[in-house]
Amino acid sequence: MTAPVTAILLAGARPVPDPLALAAGVPVKPLAPVAGRPMIDYPARALLDHAAIAQLVILTQRPDLYAADPATAWLATHPRVRFETGGQGIASSLLALMEGEGLTYPVLLTTADHVLLDGAMLDQFVAEAAGADVAVALVERRTLLARYPQSRRTWLKFRDGWWSGANIFWFGSDKAKRMIALWQEVEQDRKKGWKILAAFGPVALFGALLRLLTLRGGIARVGRKFGLAARLVAMDKAEACIDADKPEDMTLIEAILRSERPEA
């Protein structure tokens, strides 16, 4: 049985104003309404409703904004929720949090714009990530396009398919800090897949470019390089990689929330 999981929900702000926040007239993107509720409300409730999650840590530069908003004030008083103040960088904020006290492993990390996160996704991810030092959730392109053919994502191409991130990560032990330190180095280039691969060495970079590596094997190999067990979790649900990043994402997400079979 998996040990009680600490969930971290990233709810920070970008260094520059976010277009979705500006359009909604709210100070930070996680407070932007989706189908009448702040987007952070959806993943927060999904995490707290899941049996594996023991506590929820919300990492943000402005905890006061959530306590002041009537729609999210419940988070500030919930007995299993605590706010931690982060800086501008995700990786540096995580490392600071992990170096402090009161954070127990395993840790599941996701984002406040993961509006469609649900119990089925958490069931699969926790079950398949358990036992790893680091795990990352991804969705293969065929899984997404079979259900939402017009959805546009950032894809990394490997021998075992085209993959897009699902913004769910697993840190099973203190060893995960080794990978987060590398994440810190390439954080500004996280949308540029080849730069991230280059950080793992020429074998990973050219292997991916020549389609010599599977992503599953590549993640495991990188993990071994850092002395830890790393794992890919291929998510079954296409919705796992649809986050609220652009206006068209918001339109699709609201359609999904309204109907089990939206026109995408």
Key structural traits:
8-stranded mixed β-sheet; 12 helices; Spore Coat Polysaccharide Biosynthesis Protein SpsA, Chain A; MobA-like_NTP_Trfase; 10 strands; membrane; transmembrane helix; single chain; globular; 39% helix; 264 residues; two-stranded antiparallel sheet; alpha/beta; Nucleotide-diphossugar_trans; Nucleotidyltransferase family protein
Query: What name is given to the CATH topology?
Result: Spore Coat Polysaccharide Biosynthesis Protein SpsA, Chain A
First and last CA, distance: 38 Å
CATH architecture level-2 label:
Alpha-Beta Complex
Helix content: 25-40%
Pfam families: NTP_transf_3
Keywords: Magnesium, Membrane, Transmembrane, Transmembrane helix
InterPro entries: MobA-like_NTP_Trfase, Nucleotide-diphossugar_trans
Protein name: Nucleotidyltransferase family protein
Task: Tell me what the structure shows.
The chain has 264 residues and is of the alpha/beta class. It has a single domain (5-253), classed as Spore Coat Polysaccharide Biosynthesis Protein SpsA, Chain A. Helix content is 39%, strand content 20%. The longest helix has 12 residues, at 247-258. The chain crosses the membrane at residues 194-215. InterPro entries: MobA-like_NTP_Trfase, Nucleotide-diphossugar_trans. Residues 29-165 form the MobA-like NTP transferase domain. This is Nucleotidyltransferase family protein.
